[in-house]
Structure prediction request, 277 residues.
Amino acid sequence: TCTVTVTGDFTNLATASGNDPNGDPVSDEDPSTVDAVKPSVDIEKSTNGEDADEAPGVFVIEGDPVVWTYVVTNDGDVDLTGVVVTDDMLGTICTVDIAVGDSATCTADGIAVAGQYENLGTASVDYTDDAGNVVTVSDQDYSHYYGVGQNQPSIQIEDVTVEFFDGDTISGVILISDQSEMGPDFEVAITELTQYVEWKRGGKNWNRIDLTCTYTWTDASGDSGTGLPIVFNDEVTIDYSCTLNGSIPNSAKQTRLVTEAGIFSRTGMTFTYRTPL
Prediction:
């Protein structure tokens, strides 16, 4: 008996040859084909329809429903039986059979709690080949949400300074405080931040020039980030740098920078601050 070990798909032809007792040549052939299967799964987990791989994820009001969706795809080259989908916070979600190239969708329901929430979805299956060899394949995907307290949060734009302005670009610092009185552990989420320049020659009508801005922020607890959303404790300092999408005419008698901020769960409410230029 002779053995050879190979990896991957393989086709060969074995030949045995020799001489019989009379000295005459004898031989035989036998072809063999190895189909090296590659089982594989992929899982994509979402929260309330959003991928939300990274914190803070989607914003949900405390006590509102949360729906987690687990989409499991067989991206290997063999059918899979008994794929188990689990969640590190919720336990077993479902068990499914998935043909090559197909997907299965499972869901789980929950109620939002206050604060940052993270859970991890896992798809795993043991595959046994024709020779009895067992291989385990799996994949994981995180999802996040941030639960906003039922009591309505509120903010105040304390100050907006202008440190540089040349007519084309403008930069400075925005200071925003949390007015919710919900305690030091409560966080507010700024989901909208808009700035623009207004000017007028006289009279009551202001003309608007939009700005293209970038933001870098740090809150009182030392957390920091760039862009939106801005989730902060107590107060947050935001460095802004903007480019004017237009020109202020020389005839303008008054100019000002307008800063507007909106927070999650206060749809339609805008907090505004105007800084003379």
Remarks:
- Residues 157 and 176 are 4 Å apart (CA to CA).
- The chain is about 0% helix and 65% strand.
- The first strand starts at residue 10 and ends at 19.
- The two ends are 92 Å apart (CA to CA).
